[in-house]
Amino acid sequence: MEELNLLQRVAVWAIPVLFAITIHETAHGWMALRLGDPTAKMLGRLTLNPIKHIDPIGTILVPGVLLMVGGFLFGWAKPVPITWENLRRPKHDMAWVAAAGPLSNLLMALFWAMLARLGLALGGFSEGVALFLIYVGVAGLFVNTILMLLNLLPLPPLDGSRVVSALLPPRLAYRYEQIEPWGLPILLVLLITGMLGKILWPLITTTLLGLAAVAGMKAETFQYVLYTLLN
Questions:
Q1: Which of 33, 116, 123, 220 is 20 to 30 Å from 156 by CA-CA measure?
Q2: Chain-centre distance for alpha carbon 201
Q3: Cβ distance 131 to 5 under 8 Å?
Q4: CA 57, CA 110: separation in Å to the nearest integer?
């Protein structure tokens, strides 16, 4: 398997990253609409058009730099607007709205696993199309697994915190939500100090190996493909 140049790496990673972020945000808006809040639809954010969800810094600059330097892949999109008061059962429904994002990433990870499996069936590493499907499938697995598990962290304003907040008594939930203005700085400190990786990598590794099995890949093959994509 040949080492990829920068242009090839961008071509392989761009599609999975854009789909992961776009569908994640659209899933929030879609669930909110089903539960009574049409805000995202009214503002044109209930769409699979990635341009509507891209944050120039969080979606392009930060992930691009981290990918080039081989760091922990991290980024964000413009949050889909949700009017909490429009939900039929605001506290309960907000948990479902939040959970819809990570769930969409799990479903996408399974899709990319099947795409990589198709690549293997079409000829393994011997043909250009098959090789591309394997590369992009593994990239999709990686991106969606990280985005899913990162968003499940119980740190406001990440999706996991919305689920936790819905389960807490009102007074305790209010105090918990006061952490939100400090959430991104805390997350960046965890990222810079390497603590974020130490927290997430065991979960990421376990999940990726399970999805690699769905893709019909041995652990060694999957690790080799991923190493080629990241280096």
A1: 33
A2: 14
A3: no
A4: 28
Residues with Cβ within 8 Å of 141's Cβ and at least 6 positions away in sequence, in order, are: 109, 112, 113, 116, 208, 211, 212, 215
Q: At what angle do helices 90-121 and 6-34 cross, to 10 degrees?
A: 140
CB-based contact 81:49 (threshold 8 Å): no
Q: What is the pLDDT of residue 153?
A: 93
| Residues 6+ away with beta carbon under 8 Å from 33 | 40, 41, 46
pLDDT at position 49: 85
Nearest-angstrom CA–CA distance, 134 and 116: 4
Report the percentage of the chain scoring pLDDT > 90.
Answer: 57
Q: What 3-state class would DSSP assign to 128?
A: helix
pTM of the predicted model, to two decimals? 0.88
Nearest alpha carbon to residue 149 among 20, 60, 45: 20
Mean pLDDT in residue range 27-52:
91
Q: What is 18-85 written as a DSSP string?
A: HHHHHHHHHHHHHHHHHTT--HHHHTT-SS--GGGT--IIIIIIHHHHHHHHT-------PPPP--GG
For the chain, the structural domain boundaries read 6-230
Known catalytic residues?
A: 25
